[in-house]
Write a structure and sequence with these properties.
531 residues, seven-stranded antiparallel sheet, six-stranded antiparallel sheet, 25% helix, 21% strand, elongated
Length: 531
């Protein structure tokens, strides 16, 4: 097995026996029914000469490469030409028989085949001859005259526009990002589950016939189970979806964008865009392209400034005007409310079963007492010091607020939950008394919020007693349901519980605006095609 440390660092080859012998024909493939003796030799249609030197392999190789056999040179030349031009001279690279289509450039094929033989079968010299030719150095640009006289490009009046195959595409993307390990040459192939597999050239990546990777197949990778003289070229949605959404493309774009001289201004400066174009497309951007790139980055940044699923956690002082104090059998009547002196939590404890935010990481704390918030609830502090999840509207919206305040402990005086808009407007208020109490915290009607409005989902200890005041409360903000559909969840406080960087722990962080531009250039036709 390739991953075994004891696997030999060599390729397996076949050696002749000291005294090779002829074998019998097996009737119907049954070794128990030997037929006539099959002497070692060439096929009758190719001369039928007998082989007497060892197994005959060396004699067969010499017969195949004999100057009197021009077929071998033609086949090799046709495949080399196909790799450089994207289209072979003979349309069936593995069939040069009477049923194969006659090449339009038969004289060119014969000339290159004869040259290959005269140059001692040197493929390096054949490559040099083709690559330095005027024919290869043509562009893909066409003219009305060429379209009329050579619509299919049989006369090679221009270069064939060719998409990079999977291996070249992978290596080009990784190379542009600066992640290609050019020093990793030779040795064993790399399995696809190796952490740094993408830093190696694709030619070194292991091909498993029993478990073929889907991504190479999406880009027309040759099936290893069969004969593939040339690759089919398809254009399917899965290819575009991979280039737009795959973690591989995102990672390479992120790496390259981090190396650019980018200033975090409203738009990427012209120098950054020029450096990017030089790295990816090896040219200067045109003025129109420069303007489009800067507008693209600006638009992408504006869409990322205020995502709807970002939450903040902390404490604040709750100041309230008492119009009527609590009376037996009746709740207090409150006047003006003010939520002031907001202080964000600074410590996120991730060692326990639930992630917990607090001021110091010590609970209880001499100053802040039991004040803390977790992904599904928290613990109240005191009657005037509330713990609060804070959400800020990213745009003008009509929203629905859902959630339930739960308190299971029978001790203490209970906890009070409040939904407060912009620090002064109480949208919902309820007390979860001692015992298994459940209080709906949904706001009765959809409400309209303006961009920048702040909603606090606050909890305080009733009457200042913090005994057993753990609670559960997962606020959820929804968009009203469209006709015939369910409400759309804009954010859920538990699912979108945020970490130290202000981003939900369970969400992949969005690409930066510049990284998005990098990925756009990497998946552009100019990068993906050879012209």
């Amino acid at each position: 097995e390739i991953s075994n440390a004891g696997a030999p660092p060599r390729a397996m080859v076949m050696n002749d026996r000291p005294k090779p012998a002829d074998v019998h024909v097996f009737i119907r493939g049954n070794p128990g029914r030997p037929g006539e003796l099959a002497a070692r030799g060439n096929l009758s249609i190719l001369g039928g000469q007998k082989f007497t030197d060892g197994s005959g392999r060396l004699e067969l190789a010499r017969a195949i490469t004999n100057r009197d056999n021009p077929l071998t040179a033609r086949v090799i030349v046709n495949r080399v030409w196909m790799n450089h031009f994207g289209k072979p001279l003979v349309s069936t690279p593995s069939d040069f028989g009477v049923q194969a289509a006659k090449p339009e450039q038969a004289a060119l094929l014969d000339y290159l085949a004869a040259t290959l033989i005269e140059e001692g079968w040197s493929l390096k010299k054949l490559h040099r001859l083709i690559l330095t030719s005027t024919t290869y150095q043509q562009s893909c640009k066409t003219t009305p005259e060429k379209d009329t006289k050579d619509a299919e490009n049989f006369l090679i009046s221009r270069f064939n526009r060719t998409r990079l195959d999977y291996e070249a595409m992978h290596d080009a993307v990784v190379g542009v990002a600066g992640m290609l390990n050019l020093g990793a040459m030779g040795g064993r192939s790399i399995t696809l589950n190796t952490p740094d597999v993408d830093t190696h050239r694709t030619v070194y990546q292991f091909v498993d016939r029993y478990d073929q990777a889907t991504v190479p197949a999406t880009f027309d990778f040759a099936n290893p189970d069969g004969h593939s003289p040339q690759r089919f070229v398809t254009t399917v949605p899965q290819q575009a979806l991979f280039l737009m959404n795959s973690p591989f493309m995102k990672k390479q774009a992120d790496v390259l964008s981090s190396k650019l001289p980018f200033e975090p201004t409203a738009t990427a400066d012209a120098e950054t865009i020029k450096v990017l174009y030089h790295k990816v497309l090896l040219r200067e951007p045109k003025l129109k392209e420069l303007d489009m790139a800067q507008r693209f980055v600006a638009d992408a940044q504006s869409l990322q400034t205020a995502p709807a699923f970002v939450w903040k956690y902390g404490t604040a002082r709750l100041k309230r005007e008492v119009l009527k104090p609590t009376q037996e059998g009746k709740a207090a009547v409150w006047g003006k409310t003010a939520l002031e002196d907001w202080k964000p939590f600074k410590v996120l404890d991730r060692e326990k079963k639930r992630n917990t935010w607090s001021h110091t990481g010590i609970v209880p704390d001499p100053k802040w007492q039991y004040a803390m918030l977790s992904d599904g609830g928290g613990h109240a502090a005191s009657d005037d010091l509330v713990v609060s999840r804070r959400w800020q509207a990213p745009a003008d919206l009509t929203i629905i607020i859902r959630g339930t305040l739960k308190r299971s402990a029978s001790a203490g005086n209970g906890v009070r939950g409040l939904v407060i808009r912009n620090g002064t407007e109480v949208l919902r208020e309820a007390v979860a008394a001692p015992g298994k109490t459940v209080q709906p915290m949904a706001v009765p009607q959809p409400i309209t919020v303006k961009k920048g409005d702040v909603l606090d989902f606050a909890v305080s200890a009733e009457n200042g007693d913090t005994n057993s005041d753990s609670f559960e409360w997962v606020p959820e903000i929804q968009l009203p349901a469209k006709e015939g559909a369910k409400p759309e969840v804009l954010t859920n406080a538990k699912a979108d519980f945020c970490g130290k960087d202000g981003w939900p722990l369970n969400r992949t962080r969005s690409q930066s605006a510049l990284a998005q531009l990098v990925q756009v250039l990497m998946m552009s036709n100019e990068f993906m095609f050879v012209e």
